[in-house]
Protein: Large ribosomal subunit protein uL1
Organism: Campylobacter canadensis
Amino acid sequence: MAKKAKRIQELLKNIDVTKEYNLQEGVEVVKKLASAKFDETVEIALKLNVDPRHADQMVRGSVVLPAGTGKKVRVAVIAKDVKADEAKKAGADIVGDDDLIEEIQKGNMNFDVLIATPNLMGLVGKVGRILGPKGLMPNPKTGTVTMDVAQAVNNAKSGQVNFRVDKQGNIHAGLGKVSFSKEQLLDNISTFVKAINKHKPAAAKGRYIKSAALSLTMSPSLKLETQELIDLK
């Protein structure tokens, strides 16, 4: 613990904790915080001025990052016949129907994203209690319940990020790797925040993004200017 605390103290020397950084500065500083032996993920945390207990203030959706996430994503698809063939051609790692449901029931979930065609959602419902807590339940709002399985597989493989506000109004997401160029990270972050802004509920009043922070997997966070983020359209 002492070693970890010392490392954090060293990293904090790069951050002005009294300052709110603009995006350009924030990305430049966060790239200097790399200290792990692996390629750390650049993470954003947003505090939104919404109350998700009300259905009309839920913020949920997905967005494909222009530079991808830097992570290899394993995609499973629940589909039959022609749609199963389309999923395989698109590069899905696992394709099935009843057999895949059985594997999930056994706890075998060797995938990061699950896509399903609408006609098989009744089948998926059997394992909803297993998928739900792991954030793997297919949902039309994230494009994972669709007849266009090929496009859904391509999106998942090319850097789709799903987001959902938690009970406290927070959204957290990984938006690339610290090894990405500054331009790639700026593109990814801007694209993600624009998607959050597009999903602003009509019932949300006042300042939509209350606070924002940028960090790496193993680093302290720095604060971002919220007005610049709110202005991204």
